[in-house]
UniProtKB/TrEMBL annotation:
Gene3D superfamilies: 3.30.70.260, HAD superfamily/HAD-like, NAD(P)-binding Rossmann-like Domain, Phosphoserine phosphatase, domain 2. It comes from Brevundimonas variabilis. Its EC number is 1.1.1.399, 1.1.1.95. Keywords: Amino-acid biosynthesis, NAD, Oxidoreductase, Serine biosynthesis. One of its GO terms (molecular function) is phosphoglycerate dehydrogenase activity. PANTHER family: D-ISOMER SPECIFIC 2-HYDROXYACID DEHYDROGENASE FAMILY PROTEIN (AFU_ORTHOLOGUE AFUA_6G10090). This is D-3-phosphoglycerate dehydrogenase. Catalyzes the reversible oxidation of 3-phospho-D-glycerate to 3-phosphonooxypyruvate, the first step of the phosphorylated L-serine biosynthesis pathway. Also catalyzes the reversible oxidation of 2-hydroxyglutarate to 2-oxoglutarate. One of its GO terms (biological process) is L-serine biosynthetic process. Pathway: Amino-acid biosynthesis; L-serine biosynthesis; L-serine from 3-phospho-D-glycerate: step 1/3. It catalyses: (2R)-3-phosphoglycerate + NAD(+) = 3-phosphooxypyruvate + NADH + H(+); (R)-2-hydroxyglutarate + NAD(+) = 2-oxoglutarate + NADH + H(+). It holds the Pfam family 2-Hacid_dh_C. Residues 561-630 form the ACT domain. It is an enzyme of class 1 (oxidoreductase).
Length: 630
């Protein structure tokens, strides 16, 4: 077809993430004293040639002359070049294989290195145009075939012209020699390929910059791995989320922006314009108003356990999926609770502060062992139950209270009421979730039911304890000490001030919401939450989603996936399938999962679709969100 474009790909830093000559230099110079100098000179020549500052043929010969290159070096790179495929090229392998007859590889690189990649991509040898190395009788490289136009300046346009291609020619590459193809009139369009390296002069000469294959296919209207280029999916991560998450999400091709602190409502609304995914921790409030203004938001990830800072219902009614990391910092909180209990029991904080003031205050008064004391755990979920196990191991008696039926671990005893637990405990530790109804769960009445001298820990949420009532109870001596890690008002960033009536009180330990702030926990959270996001974005998988029906999904193989989130009302599936049939699609597989409020349908179909034909799915009554994945 005359209108079908021929896609002409450069090789180095486009189809592979390396520059061949630089890797060959590393191999050939391995162990030599002058390796760094020669390597530096080769890198400089590559950059100058790729930026159009010196002629390509000149640069090629000068670089080869610098290297003691032989056939075994070339073979060593050829053997491992498949591992160096550019990430978005690897994930679009199928596109190359299905369209091999409209693709050409055009490179100043060498045939031995390019051939394995061309073969993997399904591109025939007669569609690969590149240089041929010349070896002497000892297998040393002595140069390149000078008769090949690609060994000199202006070679790429010359080769393209000699092919007399019909239809548009589209050049894709990272270097100046690629830009020259269009500038010399041998290509109709030139895309600067910037996934591996971005050169300003090349981008300036291009019709458009493409940071990935996905973007190229999107711009050319070609069927890629994704219906929407990943680099166009913007993610905003707030509150100092661990870099492991950024790395994972960027490696998958998404565009990630990070900020250190939390944002207030107005700033968050402004920051969320055009953002598809928001990552937060416990501080950022995702309110109905924020969601109403978020024009692109499709998912929120809480890189922590608690999700009370997010309006989950408002998210669900907009089809915004919410994920968290329910277990990744559990152990860290439990260890801190144990440490704080011992610290309170022994009045360590005050004794240490006195020492810092130069006071030696050796005394056993009021200092007690954990052994044999009763720990009352309020909220026997993931954290509460793990604390139960560790506390028993230290010799404590454990009682607990939970609104739900929970398995009592070890010798822990369930208490039918909170009051009964309060009356019996020497230490009370709060591990309830952050639901609104838990506001002031521990107030003046509850404090008055505790034994005189009881110790109180709160590592759950700040609003669970009435701070005024606690201040009084500590002042009166009813409460013998308290450790608080969470507060009704917490500073948004480390530069904002903290204030509380509890400051300066005897045997009161205040920590800045660090229960889950360990290196281990933060890295584990980053990996877990990022994986959940990737599962949702890449496959539609909602495992561990806290506000939409959970559906565990494998990758789609050999088909296309259509995702539809709707209000749970009668007739949606039937209407959806009518529209799919009208669009001429054959359903390969379909999952429907509902909860009382929302339905989630995942449909895999067996062949390409016209995106326009499927827009009708948006009009199905009850639709909250509709997404074409592939
Ligand atoms: N300080 C920190 O850094 C930190 C770190 C992680 C988690 N947390 C907080 O810890 C809390 C617990 O986390 P989790 O992972 O154990 O949660 P979880 O959901 O596994 O457990 C919470 C338990 O509390 C129970 N519960 C809720 N309200 C109750 C009430 N009024 N009375 C009795 N039981 C009640 C629930 O039924 C549930 O079993 C959450 O608030 C979480 O946000 C704080
Ligand atoms: O819910 C949580 O996991 C904790 O409160 C920790 O929150 P953070 O990530 O803001 O420290």
């Amino acid at each position: 077809m005359a209108d079908t474009p021929t896609l002409v790909f450069d090789f180095d830093s486009t189809l592979v993430r390396v520059e061949t000559l630089e890797v060959l230099a590393d191999i050939a110079l391995d162990g030599r004293a002058d390796a760094t100098d020669i390597r530096g000179e080769i890198g400089r020549l590559t950059d100058q040639a790729m930026a159009g500052e010196i002629a390509f043929g000149d640069a090629l010969r000068r670089r080869l002359a610098l290297l003691p290159l032989n056939q075994s070096h070339v073979t060593a790179l050829a053997d491992r070049i498949l591992e160096e495929g550019t990430p978005s090229v690897r994930r679009n392998l199928r596109f190359f294989q299905d369209n091999a007859d409209r693709i050409i590889i055009l490179s100043g690189g060498f045939r031995e290195i390019i051939a394995p990649i061309a073969q993997r991509l399904g591109i025939a040898a007669d569609r690969v145009f590149c240089n041929d190395l010349i070896y002497d009788a000892e297998d040393q490289v002595v140069g390149v075939d000078d008769s090949n136009p690609l060994s000199r300046a202006g070679g790429k346009p010359e080769v393209i012209r000699s092919l007399h291609l019909t239809g548009p020619v589209v050049m894709i590459g990272d270097g100046w020699t690629d830009a020259e193809v269009k500038l010399a009139g041998a290509a109709d369009r030139f895309y600067a390929y910037t996934e591996i390296v971005r050169r300003e002069a090349v981008v300036a000469a291009a019709d458009a910059e493409v940071p990935s294959m996905d973007e190229l296919l999107h711009l050319e209207g070609l069927p890629g791995r994704w219906s929407y280029p990943r680099a166009r999916v913007r993610m905003l991560l707030l509150e100092n989320i661990h870099p492991a998450a950024v790395m994972r999400l960027e490696e998958a091709g998404y565009t990630v922006e990070t900020r250190k602190g939390a944002l207030d409502e107005d700033d968050l609304i402004a920051a969320l314009k055009g953002v598809h995914v928001l990552g937060i921790r416990s501080k950022t409030q995702v309110s109905e108003r924020v969601l109403a203004e978020a024009d692109r938001l499709m998912a929120v990830a809480a890189f922590c356990i608690g999700t009370n800072q997010i309006d989950l219902d408002a998210c669900a009614t907009r089809g915004v999926a919410v994920f968290n990391a329910p277990y990744s910092n559990t152990r860290s909180v439990v260890e801190l609770a144990i440490g704080l209990t011992i610290t309170l029991m022994r009045d360590v904080a005050d004794k240490s502060a006195a020492m810092h003031r130069g006071q030696w205050n050796k005394s056993a008064d009021g200092s007690r062992e954990l052994r044999g004391k009763t720990l009352g755990i309020v909220g026997y979920g993931a954290i509460g139950s793990q604390l139960s196990v560790l506390a028993e191991a230290l010799g404590m008696r454990v009682v607990f209270h939970d609104l739900s039926e929970r398995l009592a671990l070890g010798n822990a005893r369930r208490m039918r009421s909170l009051d009964a637990l309060l009356a019996e405990s020497d230490v009370v530790s709060l591990h309830v979730d952050g639901r609104k109804e838990n506001e002031n769960l521990i107030g003046a009445a509850q404090l008055s039911r505790m034994k005189t001298g009881t110790l109180l820990l709160n590592l759950s949420r700040g609003h669970v304890v009435d701070i005024g009532a606690l201040t009084q109870a500590i002042g009166s001596g009813r409460i013998g000490g308290a450790a608080l890690d969470v507060f009704p008002e917490e500073p948004r960033t480390n530069s904002d001030p903290f204030d509380s009536p509890l400051m300066g009180l005897k045997n009161v330990i205040l920590t800045p919401h660090i229960g889950g702030s360990t290196e281990e926990a933060q890295e584990a959270i980053a990996e877990f939450a990022a994986d959940r996001l990737l599962g949702y974005l890449n496959r539609g998988d909602t495992t561990f989603c806290v506000n939409l029906p959970n559906v565990q999904l494998a990758d789609v193989s050999g088909g296309h996936r259509i995702l539809h989130i709707h209000r749970n009302q009668p007739g949606v599936l039937a209407e959806l399938n009518r529209e799919l049939t009208t669009a001429g699609l054959n359903i390969l597989g379909q999952h429907l999962k509902t909860d009382e409020r929302t339905g989630y349908v995942i449909t895999d179909v067996d062949h390409g679709y016209e995106p326009e034909a499927l827009r009708a799915l948006k009009t199905v009554a009850g639709t909250l969100r509709f997404r074409l994945l592939h």
